[in-house]
Design goal:
It is built from three helices and nine strands; from the N terminus they run E-E-E-H-E-E-E-E-E-E-H-H. It is mainly beta and 186 residues long. The chain folds into two domains: 115 residues, Chitinase A, domain 3, CATH 3.10.50; 47 residues, Thrombin, subunit H (Beta Barrel). The strands form two sheets. Strands 1, 2, 3, 4 and 9 form a five-stranded antiparallel beta sheet that branches. The chain has a four-stranded antiparallel beta sheet with strand order 5-8-7-6, with no helix packed on it. Strand 6 and strand 7 form a beta hairpin. It is elongated and about 60 Å long.
Length: 186
C-alpha cells in the first residue's frame, strides 16, 4: 500500500542539522505515527513520504521553508520581568506563554532586572534538516481517525473525546529535540 491521503503511516527516523549533529531520532520500540495529508509533520518530510511503501528506506534534505520556516526577527520581543513573577528563569530557557491566540513556546534570549527578551521562533527556524527514514507500516485510517484528524496509534491524554486512543503528539512541532529542553519547558 502506498502512502497517500488518509493513510496512517508509522516510521522510524533520525534527523540531523546541516552540521551533521543528530537533533532527534525515534525510539525503536515506539515508531512515529501520523495521518498522512493532515499536516501533522513538516511539509518537506510529508511530501517525501508520499507514494512510499512499507519497508522503504530513504534520506531527504528539507530546507527551512519546508521545515520550521525561516527566522522571523519580528518574533523577538521584550516583556516586563514582573510578568513572569518570581519564577527562577535563565538565558536559553523555554517558556510557554498564553496569548489571545493560544499558547506559544518562547526562548529566553536575555534577562535584565526589569526586562526579559524573548524569541518566538521555533528553535529550528532557519535550519535545514536531513532525515533518514524507514517506513515501518502503512494502513488505511479508520473513519474515527479521519474525523479526529490524527492516528490512534498510542494511548495518551487528549482533548478530542477519543477515550484515550488517539495520538495528538503526532506533530513535529511538539517534539523535544534535546533532553535539556524537557527540563526547560514550563
Amino acid at each position: 500500500m502506498k502512502i497517500s491521503e488518509n493513510k496512517v503511516v508509522s516510521f522510524s527516523y533520525t534527523v540531523k542539522n546541516a552540521a551533521g549533529e543528530v537533533l532527534d531520532q525515534s525510539d525503536a520500540s515506539a515508531p512515529f505515527s501520523y495521518l498522512h495529508g493532515c499536516h501533522q509533520i513538516i511539509s518537506g518530510l510529508e511530501v517525501a513520504l508520499e507514494g512510499k511503501e512499507k519497508d522503504a528506506k530513504f534520506s531527504v534534505h528539507v530546507d527551512p521553508e519546508d521545515a520550521y520556516g525561516v527566522r522571523d526577527e519580528s518574533l523577538i520581543f521584550t516583556i516586563d520581568r514582573s510578568y513572569l513573577g518570581d519564577e527562577p528563569i535563565e538565558k536559553g530557557m523555554q517558556l510557554q506563554l498564553q496569548a489571545e491566540d493560544g499558547y506559544h513556546i518562547v526562548t529566553i534570549l536575555d534577562i535584565t532586572d526589569t526586562e526579559v527578551k524573548l524569541d518566538g521562533n521555533h528553535p529550528l527556524a532557519g535550519e535545514s534538516l536531513d532525515f533518514d527514514v524507514q517506513v515501518l507500516d502503512v494502513r488505511e485510517a479508520t473513519a474515527e481517525e479521519i474525523e479526529h484528524g490524527h492516528s490512534h496509534s498510542h494511548e495518551h491524554d487528549c482533548d478530542c473525546n477519543c477515550e484515550g486512543e488517539c495520538d495528538s503528539d503526532d506533530d513535529f512541532d511538539d517534539i523535544e529535540f534535546t533532553p535539556e529542553d524537557d527540563e526547560k519547558l514550563d
